[in-house]
Request: fold
Amino acid sequence: DPSTIYNNVITETDEWNKWFARGRSKVNWTVYPNWIRAPKNSSDYSWVHPQSMTSQVQDNSIEIGDELVGIAESKIDLKNIQDILFIYPPDVSKIQDSINYQRGMRTKNGIQMLGIYATSIWSYTWQKSLAMWLIHENMHRFGYAGHAPGFPMNFSIANNQSGQSRVMNVWDRIVLDWINPGDIYCADINNLNSETITLVPQEREQSGPQGIAIKLSSHELLILESHKQDKWSSEYPSEFYGITAMYVDTTRDTDRSGENFGDDYKGTKFSRTATYLEFKELNHGPESDGSISGAINYLLYQGETFTFKGVKVDFVKAGYNDVIKVSKE
Reply:
């Protein structure tokens, strides 16, 4: 029954948009509720991503998209459609990677700009949530850059939509204008006194400040966020907690050209607009592979402190809500 798949996508997407986008992003869904028998064998709809670890890259995504749009038009009117998600059965075995692009497609209504997405072996194997994958890729289609910070990949769907957390970080929500008054505590370093702020974890639906943003200069910000296991991070360990510090420099564009080609995703080899600060001096443990254990040197724990570009941050108390003190160094 395809409804078990698309209902999950619809429900999770709508709930996510209501909370993280503050209702400023909304999907009007059109669903064809039944399986459709495609005219060709499933292997004819297989695409191999150019960055897949294989020599058998076949760039036939445009042809596949044309075929799929034709199939869709036999069932629904595409006149007011902007994006189409094609869902294959979860046991699909001959369609390797998920096509994902936008282009002008020939339809019964003429040339129409469409976003084309399809499930695959890859999406059912590696994507914990089809909704998060669709949200991430769909936002790219509408001009959202994302992918900064790039490492660790645990804390936001901005860089890793199949990670342990399904939040949109505070910086990206500022850029997208998905912040309401009271959602964030803001200060200018030139006027900063000693302030104690109680933070709401990024992963919890709770009113109150979800981040601290301190303006360091005309183009720089320091952003502090609290993280815990909650509704939007159920795969975090139950005892997981910590404060992350993000450095934003808007004079730097995010350069993704090195991804899968030697980039460390930290903004050291290829620039990133935003990067997480690594607390090397706190030495929580050896860095590993980007899992939670590999992110521990990017987390501030209760009783710890750090200074950055004239700002001192003290993690006063951990609990249901974390208490942070910020002051000028």
The longest strand covers residues 110-118. The chain has a mean pLDDT of 90. The chain has five helices and twelve strands. Helices lie at 3-20, 61-73, 121-126, 130-141, 170-175.
